Fold:
Amino acid sequence: METVEQIKEIQNQIEAVMFALGREISVDELSQTLGIEKQYIENAIDTLYEKYSFDSGVVLVKVNDCYQLVTNNKYYDKVNLFVENTKRKNLSVAVQEVLSIIAYNPKITKSEIENIRGVNSDFAVSRLLECGLVEEVARLNLPGRPAAYAVTSEFLKSCGINSINELPDFENIKISDEQLLVSDFENNKQDDKQHDVNDEK
Structure:
């Protein structure tokens, strides 16, 4: 028969493994790896269920006969604030460069970004979309229907400004309205609308 100290030690081992592993784990795997009988593993998990109840920030869940420690859904929004903030802090220099170009050139396409930088910018744009700092704001009426991008309100909030007009003056990376492909796209849309009106007449 296991002593109280031994039972507590088993619980601590399982708790430590689940926390560090970050994935689902079965009783069989715990038993085989830790060299502890399944009965004691199951008893320890029952106790951990009580400790990590649905009133806790972290809860113990059972999925397909496996167990995992996860964040309580109740606090997902709070945790996500820190996750997103960490993502943004880890933006590479290249990604920050692309973000600057988009900020100073609303409705700019990826090909235009690459013309400015001279290198492929697929990853940088995808990273910024993932972080919610830029968004797609238009589709051009050109082969492939390329997307045009602009910064989001999240970007403005992170900079502590209300509008991109409040950004410091930086003419070197600005593209004139006449050079932006999206300007032609918008002009085409206006022409199409005018044609539709004339056709109705």
Notes: Residues 79-200 form a domain with the Arc Repressor Mutant, subunit A fold (CATH 1.10.10.10). The first helix runs from residue 4 to 21. The mean pLDDT is 81.
